[in-house]
Design a protein that fits this description.
Blueprint: H1 2-38
Length: 52
């Protein structure tokens, strides 16, 4: 019984991780595109939005 509970918990955790991986990759791609098109110091340039 204990092994079965551990298996179920492991299955749920691995399923959650596998659903989160595409979201993390998409977020990293968005960050990379923002740095490519806007630059790292985009907030310090004139004519940009200041979110401070």
């Amino acid at each position: 019984m204990v092994k079965k509970v551990g298996f179920v918990i492991k299955k749920h955790l691995l399923t959650g991780i596998s659903y989160m991986i595409p979201l993390i990759v998409a977020a990293e791609i968005c960050i990379a595109l923002g740095q490519i098109f806007g630059g790292i110091d985009v907030a310090e340039n004139e004519g940009t939005f200041d979110f401070k």
